[in-house]
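Problem 3 from the worked examples.
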Amino acid sequence: MKDMMCYKEYYGSVHYSDEDRVFHGKIEFIRSLVSYEGSNAESLRKAFEEAVDDYLELCAEEGRKPDKPFKGSFNVRTGSDLHRKAALFAKTKGTNLNKIVTEALEKYLRRGAGLNK
C-alpha cells in the first residue's frame, strides 16, 4: 500500500517535510494520536515499530484495551434516498442491509482496487 507501513496489524502513514528534512507519520485508524519520525526510511520504519510497541505497552500498563484499527463495523452516511433504496432492495432479496452493503463493497473492491490486505 502506497505511503503506509504495517506492523502488528497497525498501519502507519509516511510523510516527508522538506522544511524540516524529516520523515514523519502517525498510527492510522485508531483514536489515540501516536506519531513518530525519522531521518530516512529505515529510521522511520524503526520509529513506527517502536511507537506501536510503546502504545501497546502503555495500554497494558494502564489496564485498558488498545484500539484495533479495524473492528469490522463502521457508519455509512448515504443520504435518506439511497438508504431507503438499499433497505427496500435488501427486503425484496430476503436479506438485511448489512449483507447488501458488505456484498456491494466486496464487488467494488474486487473490481477496482486489487487490495489484498
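Problem 4, a separate protein:
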Amino acid sequence: MVGNTLQWYDYALYGYFASVISDLFFPLKNEYLSLIAAFGVFAAGFIMRPVGAILFGYIGDKYGRRLALSSAVLLMAVPTSCIGLLPTYEDIGIIAPLLLIVIRLIQGLALGGEFSGSMTFIIEHSPDNKHGIVGSSSMFSMVLGMLLGSFVAAFTAGVLTPEDFKTWGWRIPFLISLPAGIIGLYIRTQLQESPKYEKLKLENGLSVKPLREVIMHHWKEVIIVIGIVLSLTVPFYTLTVFMNSFLVKILNHSIHNATIMNTINMLVLMIFIPISAIVSDKIGRKNVLIAVTIGYILFTYPIFLLLVQDGFIKPLLAQIAFSILVGCFIGPLPAMMVETFPTKVCYTGTALSYNFSIAIFGGTAPAISTWLIKSTELNSIVALYIILYAIVSLIALCCYKGESTAK
C-alpha cells in the first residue's frame, strides 16, 4: 500500500496541475484548445499502459511479482521528478511539450505494469473469503496517493501567491517524487513473494508465454473485463483529473477551491471503497457492481446539473454524490478481475484487460469531455458520456460468468 500510494502520488500530479501546465507548455490563444492539448499529453501516457502490462506481466508471471513491482516503482519516480525540472515553452519552445510527452510515456509504461500487478500480488496473499476487502486496499492506496497529491497541490497553491505558484511553486510537488520513489523501492524489495506464485513455481506450472496463453485461451474474459472496467475508468478520471480543470477553466472557480473540493472527494472515495468491498465479500462482486452501474445510469445526469450551479456548496455536494458512486464501484473490482484469471497468467490477464480499458477510454476521457463541452456548449454533456459507458458495463456484467456470490 505504501509503494502504491507513492506511485499514484507521482502519476496524479499531472492531472492536478493540468490547468497550469496548459498555460506554461501549450500557450495557445484559445483556452479550450490549450486545455485539450494538456489533456492530450495526459492521454499519451495511457498509450504505453498496455505495453507496460505486457512487459511487466511477462516479468511478473515468469520471474515473480516482486521483481516486476520493484522495477515499476523506480521507473515512475525518476521521470516524475524530471517534470519539476523541465523548461517551459517560453524557455525552449516546442522541445518543452515534446519532452513532457516522453516523460508521460515512461510514466504510463511504469503504471501499466505496477497497479494491476499490485492487485494480483496482494490478493494472492489473502484467504479466499477476504479477496474483496484485501483487494480493495490497492484501490484505497491509489486514492490515498491521489489524495496526497491533491493535498500537496492545494497546500502549495494556498501558501504561495498566484504568481509565485505559476512561476516556480508548481514544480515542488514533482521534485518530492524522487525521494518518495526511493522509499517505495526499498519497501518493495523487502516483500515476500506471492505464496500462490511460489507454489506454482515449485510445481513447474508457470506459463512460458503468458501473453500468448491469455490471448489464445482467455480472450473472452479479457473483453468482458475491459467492458466492466469502463465504469471505473471514465467516471474515475472524470472525477480526479477532468474535474479540477473543469471547475477552474470552465466554471471559473479558483484553483484553491477546486483542489479543496478534490481533496474532499478523495476522502469520500476512501470511505466507500472498503465498505463496498466488504459487502462484495458477503453478497458477491457481480451483485454490487450491477447495482452501482444502475446508479450511474439513474443519477449521473442530475448530479451534473447540480455541479454546474454557482457557489461552492452545490458543486461540492454534487461531487460528493458522484464520489460515492465511483467509490462503491471500484472497491470490489480488483478481486473480480484477479478471480477471473488462473494464477499462471493472472498478472498478464489482469494487467492487459485493465490497462487496455484504461488506455483507450480512461486516458482520453478528460480531453473528450472538454471537446464535448466546447462542441455542444453544454456543461452537463459529460454526464451523458459517462452514462453511455455505464450501459456498456452493465451489458458486460450480465455476460460475466463469475459467481453471483463471493468466492
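Solution to problem 4. The mean pLDDT is 85. The chain has 21 helices and no strands.
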